[in-house]
Design goal:
It contains ten helices and eleven strands. The chain is of the alpha/beta class.
Length: 363
């Protein structure tokens, strides 16, 4: 591909903000990845982000909901991207291949048979393409990153393979081979092949899957210890999450009820992490690292945090924080239900100075 941007248009004033807050500027980009892959990236900036001196931030979604629906909802309290932009960061919300506006494997337009699509090593390729593009666009030597759930796993793997590219890394509610037991994903669950114990149920999970809007709220509802869920999360945020997730897939309206597609490779990798396999080595990471875990998270486990901390032997700094009573969706919950504390930790961490770039061997 000869172009670095297939399309770029300014989206100003689309999103809500508080009365005293400026509305960040949003720009849509198409970033070339490996041959045959284009990656959808939304750039979110405030007026002062280009002169703030703060690192650019890449946000990466998890196994199901793509980037914009995860991090940039057009309602109050629904956009981590806007919060970071107002703090002075240039923010880049990316979709991995198979998700949202990025290239989908051709097999995702066919019956969902065969091996799970889009595994971790492929997402790492996508991240590297976006990192290279962001560094060139911002003229910064390194980037900061935040990954949610499987996004944290993907970014951790990336930072372990390309440590020189990453200044700050936040891993939010992610798995890291902390143990052999997992109530939702591990042995004895539908994720295990009934014919081959210890192996992922590729036939049952299929190559990709449809997700309805209603399915997005089920696990969230079960994590909230109140009958009235609106006391914990804004109904506007929940509705926006559902709406934006469906809007991410041009085929969603072809289903009854409407649904969006997601590849199943993330589930396969998560099954092996949940059963004690180590898919990447945190010892290679040299960035500052913040591990965030919600106390009521159903995905990550306390032992994932412990083992990850133990393995981060070369990180510039390591901090782990458990957000009390918070859910897996802490960045979308109400401020008093963990979001304020989450933002405090994230903004404080990303404002820490970058450590000097280590010289490459032989230089």
């Amino acid at each position: 591909m000869k172009h670095s941007l297939v399309s770029c248009w300014m989206v100003v004033g689309l999103f809500l903000a508080g009365p005293a807050q400026a509305v960040p500027t949003r720009t849509e980009h198409r970033v070339p990845g490996v041959p045959g892959i284009e990656l959808s990236v939304r750039e979110v900036r405030d007026k002062g982000s280009s002169t703030s001196g703060l690192p650019p931030v890449i946000l990466l979604h998890g196994a199901r909901v793509p980037g914009r629906a995860s991090f940039d909802l057009p309602v109050e309290g629904g956009s981590l991207a806007a919060d970071l932009a107002r703090a002075g960061h240039a923010v880049y919300v990316m979709d991995a291949r198979g998700y949202g506006g990025s290239t989908r494997p051709p097999a995702m337009s066919a019956p969902a048979t065969g091996r799970p699509l889009v595994s971790s090593h492929e997402v790492v390729q996508d991240v590297h393409a976006v990192v290279t593009w962001v560094k060139k666009r911002t003229r910064q030597p390194r980037v900061a990153m935040l990954g949610w759930a499987t996004g944290g796993h993907w970014l951790g793997m990336y930072a372990s393979l390309h440590p020189e590219e990453v200044s700050h890394l936040i891993i939010l509610n992610a798995l890291y081979a902390g143990g052999h037991q997992h109530a939702m994903l591990g042995r004895g669950t539908t994720f295990e092949d009934p014919k081959r114990p210890g192996q992922f149920n590729a036939e049952g999970m299929e190559a990709w899957r449809w997700n309805t809007a209603a399915s997005l709220l089920g696990v969230w509802d079960r994590s909230i210890p109140l009958e009235d869920k609106s006391q914990w999360r804004s109904p506007e945020v929940a509705e926006a999450l559902q709406r934006e997730a469906l809007a991410s897939d041009t085929m969603s309206a072809s289903r009854t009820p409407p649904a969006f597609r997601a590849p199943s490779g993330a589930l396969e990798d998560s099954f092996y992490l949940a059963t004690g396999r180590q898919l990447w080595d945190a010892a290679s990471i040299t960035a500052r690292v913040l591990i965030l875990r919600s106390e009521k998270d159903f995905w990550s486990r306390p032992e994932d945090v412990t083992v990850l901390q133990e393995h981060l032997v070369h990180a510039a700094s390591v901090k782990a924080v458990v957000i009390p009573e918070a859910t897996h969706f802490v960045h979308l919950d109400r401020p008093a239900r963990g979001r304020d504390l989450f933002l405090q930790e994230v903004l404080g961490f990303f404002s820490q100075p970058q450590t000097p770039v280590a010289p490459r061997a032989g230089h």
